Amino acid sequence: MRGKFRGGRGRGNRGRGFWPRGGNSRGFEGPWNRPIFGRPEQNQQWLQRKRVNVNAPSKRLSEQAIGVTEYINDHEGFNGIIKARFSDFQVSEINEKGEVAKLTDLSTPEVPTVDDAVDDEDLLLNKYNPEILPMETWDRINKVAISTNAEHVEKVQVDVTGMTKEQRTKIHDAVKKAFGGSIVGSTITVEDKKYVTFDKYRKGVRIDNRVKWVWPAEYVYFIVYKENCDTMEAASRIGERLRMHVRPSLLGYAGTKDRRAKTTQWFSLRKFDPRKISAACSDLRDIRVGNYSFSDTNLSLGMLKGNQFRICLRNVTAADECVDAACELLRERGYINYYGLQRFGTRVDVPTYVIGRKLLQGNFREAIRFILSKRPGPMAHALHLFHTVNAYAAAHALPRDAPPTEARLLRALAQNENDLIGAMDQVARNARLLYVHSYQSLIWNRVASERLKRFARQPAPGDLVPLADVEDDSLQEDSDDEENQNNADQNDAEKKTTEDKTDTDKKDAKPTDKRPKSKTMIPVKVLTQEDCDSGRYSIFDVVLPLPGYSVQYPPNMEDYYKQLLTKDELKLDMKHKYKSYSMCGGYRHIAARPADMQWRSVRYSEPFADLLLSDVDELEGRTTTGIRQDGEYKAVLLTMSLRPSSYATMALRELLKVDTSGDSQALQNNYYKKKKDDKNTPAKSDDQADQNHDQPDKDDDKLDQNDDQSDQNASVDVNEEPCEEEINEEDGGAEKRKLDEEDEGVEVKRTKQNDS
């Protein structure tokens, strides 16, 4: 059997594929990557035998791993669960005018009348306008329109010799407005004379179906309410319904919002009838649209003032006095403006900053390996084939809803597994920069923690402050092209940009000595001891740079920047031989304060009762029935507004003094189960209590064992790659082959058991 595999194991283990056990093994032939099994059903059976578990859980990233270690206030925190339900986290966009996005009206605006319609030539055309054509000509055209036998009706010709194109266009528009599609107009030339002819429409004759735009402005604005999906997914689904061929870039929006939240934000679309938008989106799951308006400008990333957050913290055990004191302190003294966990992805084995570091180092092979690393979910089977067979097999096993980044990479590698840079260029620029910006954010977090350890919350000599009063969105130049991570917590304001839809320009793939031109960077000032003693500056004025070639590093922290970057084999200027990966950097305030912060405590009995009303709940007339004055549990309802580029979870971390990672929150979210178990457990007598006082509780031991087993299950994944820091660069290939062989053995064993 082995001899039938041309280029397979019979001719060596390595093959010609992307990985050490590459494209020529496992029954795939030569550079064409075609399966050589005799019958198609054999190929399908072979692929089914290789199918892997798609439901295996994986661990999540911790705050310490991303450099989030310090606090700016010294108050006593309290326990509270963040996002016990996604309805506990609601976000409303604040536009540049300071208006909060709120869905209050699902109806569509009335179609403007003829007198209200805006014409491109600013001309109002009435039916049978004698100023355009004589009434005799109108009557002749009308006879053609109402005739039942078009072949026996003579065409109407209008002599337009000497008229300008604009004048002829007005004639066409007037006739079209009067008769619609029943009359077809065309311009012809006969013996040096021009005529406009009007004929009865019949099948096979070209007809102009363009409809004049009658709405007040060029762009339609509408509010999108969504839950349990992120902004880019919502844009894609709306685009599909509008038959826009899934081009989310045609839909303008100012910022991205998280999947696990209820959010409202503005979308914009050029010259699209609001009635069609409403009809197409009427049955979309978890998405509602409404509150239509019109504007002369399109929405783009960064066109927002911030976000308003409505948050429910469940199972708060602290007294109201403690809660009030902590909230007052947060409102007055703020929090450390860390980048939150959402910035770095959800996987502990391959955070996005690891991929970004590899891209900046120029190690594209490792970067692609991490992007396409095995993981549970719909992509599990395709990724397993990529690591055990080759890119061609993986590309043909992609699910229909495959993520665009992974799908583009696999399809590009299926064409040429050795063109690594070309494959990365197939990924949208925004997605590529997401990885690099994640690494910059990691460095910023670590430097911010070290800065607070050295100098606390007071301005120190060597700190940087901007010379103008600007927000973080104006300071962060590298965020211009970033399509932000899925995250409602992140109040990201990104600059005006549109996604490069082709993004396959090979110029970026060629090494060049030319360095990118520096962008205009906000000027900063280095503080002196005199400035610090003057009292004119506070911690809220201090900024730290994101690494790049256009930033100025603070003298009091430059050594630490250099230490971190040198460890990762990078330089302070962050220049790269490939232009796409040269980062200009930016600045970010080290501390921030929430605005319009309000809070109140409520009681509830049902652990999963709704305690916050969404915009749709209010539209449908629902009430918060879960709030009870005699409830067993307490929750704190928070409302606050954050400026662009701030993370609400980092504000909550400062308030609660707890780890905001998913694993930490999950441990707190079983409080109602523990109380239920305590109620069902019979009370022990005093003698029994004394007798068992020094013995470990069996139930506790069992619980600990279950917890250990859960942790073990969470970390065991047949698809999981080791964390980048734990990979031996030299022995990685051998370890990889060993793991693959073990996986193969497990699969073969399972197949034999199933057959038996």
Brief rundown of the structure:
The chain has about 750 residues and is of the alpha+beta class. About 30% of the residues lie in helices and about 15% in strands.
Mind explaining what this structure looks like?
This protein is α+β, with helices and mostly antiparallel strands. Among the domains are: 77-84 and 309-338 and 601-676, no CATH class; 90-113 and 215-306, TruD, catalytic domain (Pseudouridine synthase); 135-200, Ribosomal Protein S8, Chain: A, domain 1 (2-Layer Sandwich); 457-592, no CATH class. The strands form 7 sheets. Strands 3, 4, 8, 9, 10, 11, 12, 20 and 21 form a 9-stranded mixed beta sheet that branches. The chain is globular and about 90 Å long. The chain starts with 27 loop residues before the first strand and ends with a helix.
Key words describing this protein structure:
756 residues; alpha+beta; nine-stranded mixed β-sheet; three-stranded antiparallel β-sheet; Pseudouridine synthase; 23 helices; disordered C terminus; Ribosomal Protein S8, Chain: A, domain 1
